[in-house]
Amino acid sequence: MAEKITSRSVDYSQWYLDIVLNAKLADYSPVKGCMVIRPRGYAIWERLRDELDRRFKATGHVNAYFPMLIPMSFLKKEAEHVEGFAPELAVVTHGGGEELDEPLVLRPTSETIIWDKYRDWIQSWRDLPLLINQWANVVRWEKRTRLFLRTAEFLWQEGHTAHETSKEAEEETLRMLEVYRSFAEEFLALPVVAGVKSDSEKFAGAVRTYTIEAMMQDRKALQAGTSHFLGQNFAKAFDVKFQSREGKLEHVWASSWGVSTRLVGALIMTHSDDKGLVLPPTLAPEEVVIVPIFKGDSKPAVLAYGERLATALKSLGLRVVFDSDESNSPGWKFAEWEMRGTPVRIELGPRDMEAGKVVLVRRDTGEKEIVAVEAAPARVRELLGLIQANLLERARAFRVENTKSIGTRDEMLAFFSKEGAGTADATGGFAEALWCGSAECEAGLKAETKATLRCMPMDRQEGISGTCALCGAPAKHRAIFSRSY
RNA sequence: CGGGACGUAGCCUAGAGGCCAAGGCGUCAGCUUUGGGAGCUGAAGAUCGCGGGUUCGACUCCCGCCGUCCCGACCA
Predict the structure, then answer these.
(1) ipTM over 0.95
(2) How long is the CA A110 to C1' B74 vector, in angstroms?
């Protein structure tokens, strides 16, 4: 059969789509910009969601659910907020066959409807902190959509917290950023840079936005999660006050933070290759697949050999699929499970059986090894750990390799003019440079190169001295610039 | 929302005004097979994206719309 997946080097966008569609993660919907998440894609989301939910609860948060329909007037209460979302709102104007008195918006995010309730729920410092998360769908009428990366409707979680002091709210903001960072690296094997957004890139309504940024294989940046310090903006807009320990009436301080189904897109674009999806073992619906190879009358014996091994693997708690289906050839199955991203494949046939061995194949490197069948379960478990670690390290090495320290404007322009080199959609990667802090400077670079300020890495702000790589003014920050999704 | 490309069976492609729309993959049945997407035989499967128009005749030409992808402006 013909090659199903377009090579990354030929057309990166098409490669990504080929994987999403061929690995049956998602499909198009009759409504423009919306997507159907297919069972295999949803299984990945569920694993991701469950682990994140566990980490939220471990840090003291509880789940709740707020409605999808929000009165238009709520959005308008926070000026910057409504301005930021107005262009992408979907609005419900009719209900029950009649025009509504007030249009309702499909939530693009839930700050407003949540803070409307917080006003009632928060009276005293004893009601704080309030640490609520919700898992929900949101709608943003995007002009240009891409499966998982940007769709008109997507699934996400949004945490909304209220605190007594600015310091506590900012600590919460940073705590959740760290939850995202560690989750991305430990669970998704997605190396990220944690940092602060510039004013022009921050969330509409936030005082400060923190982000985790990942580098995809085409060297573009992808914002994988954000955590916002909201100050008292929403508390003031929705008049949420509490009586402090000193007996004074004060507005509460807030944070909000979220990650979405976009993470599934990030996973695909970070780890996968021209043979298909590559999944970290933590997220794979099945960690290991066994493909038996029959020859002549060896079938019953080979099947039994495979079944025994499957049982042994399961007894270690591993997620195992025994692909004993007879209608497809072994070669077909090898390719198919590679397309699906299963981390480890075990091949076993009459020759292996006679020798008491099996063949183990790693999805991440393609390496094969032959081991004694009794040793296989322990070795598989070991391999899964190695694969998980290798995916993270491989992606991190790629990012480091494609991150360059830039000192001058000319260097910067040269860095981002590499378009077309290497992969079809290549960019220079991450440019790390000193920056004066001016929005004009940032906008100028964007106009010339499409590169935006992704973040100011939090661990790289010590000892800033020198001049802005863009304009030569005294530098205030060290920032990462890149083209992005 | 602008510019470009494309839309023919589940998927990919041929047909470029003229008889019954062609082939490959996949699907189904049977046989034969199985160490990297096997083989043979047979079968099913298409309002040619939708709507108008030109024409004796439209998958083919014209107009409009819808959708997908790519490139721009905007965004998780």
Answers:
(1) no
(2) 21
